[in-house]
Amino acid sequence: MNVLLINGSPRPNGCTFTALSEVASTLEAEGISAEIVSLGAGSLRDCTACRKCAELDNACIFSDDCVNDLIARAARADGFVFGTPVYYAHPSGRILSALDRMFYAGSAAFRHKPAAAVASARRAGTTASLDVLSKYFTIAEMPVVSSSYWNMVHGNSPEEVQQDLEGLQSMRNLGRNMAWLLKCIRLGRDSGVLPPVTERAYKTNFIR
Ligand SMILES: Cc1cc2nc3c(=O)[nH]c(=O)nc-3n(C[C@H](O)[C@H](O)[C@H](O)COP(=O)(O)O)c2cc1C
């Protein structure tokens, strides 16, 4: 089993990476493979609402950034952790651009797989950012993995995050909870407990 951890910071080895690394090493200790992928600092397109993805197989029409590669990686993953720095009390613009496109074009890669959000801030805006990221999971039928506190660390540098002992403890507890849930899901599947079939008969816009 493997977990894909996506770092939504342009700083590949910054605070968010430090938090995700703590989750990843806990997962590895629990026998779950963990891979951290950074969105990087390059240009990343926003969703243009062209709806061309409806004609494609789990892919965005734009293939000049990392999004299609991430959808392909997501299809192979069993669980997810999405990490973001807090910018003006919300997740980074780049993680929102990536997730809008990944979930709109490739939601099948995520359905019924557990996910968690992690936020890193100097001081404030973490819970609002976690709220935003969690909304992607709860519209995609993904079990949300939690910890002993909300999944946040505090710091402006990796060294400061290393001093946030409770934050790192939350990351380790998150990793153990993710590993436990993945093992339960695997055991359930092996015993014939499959994900439910989703009803899709109704899609009612608010037009009366
Ligand atoms: C544009 C920008 C906006 C920021 N806004 C906030 C904020 O609203 N609240 C906060 O506590 N920290 C804020 N910060 C600080 C970062 O959230 C914090 O340093 C974070 O841990 C950086 O993570 P990273 O090293 O993974 O990029 C901001 C940083 C930047 C660059």
Give a concise summary.
The chain has 208 residues and is of the alpha/beta class. The protein contains 6 helices and 6 strands; from the N terminus they run βαβαββαβαβαα. It is globular and about 50 Å long.
Classified in CATH, the superfamily is Flavodoxin domain
Low-confidence stretches: none
Strand content: 15-25%
SSE succession: EHEHEEHEHEHH
Silhouette = globular
Give the beta-strand count. 6
Q: Say what the CATH topology is.
A: Rossmann fold
Largest sheet properties = 6 strands, mixed
CATH architecture descriptor name: 3-Layer(aba) Sandwich
- Number of domain units: 1
Class derived from helix and strand content:
alpha/beta
Radius of gyration: 17 Å
Q: Summarize the amount of helix as a percent range.
A: 40-55%
In DSSP terms, counting alpha (H) and pi (I) runs of 4 or more, how many helices?
6
Mean pLDDT: 97
Question: How would you characterize the overall build of this protein?
Answer:
- With 208 residues, the chain is of the alpha/beta class.
- The chain has one domain: Rossmann fold.
- 40% of the residues lie in helices and 16% in strands.
- The protein has six helices and six strands; from the N terminus they run βαβαββαβαβαα.
- Strands 1, 2, 3, 4, 5 and 6 form a six-stranded mixed sheet that branches.
- The relative contact order is 0.18.
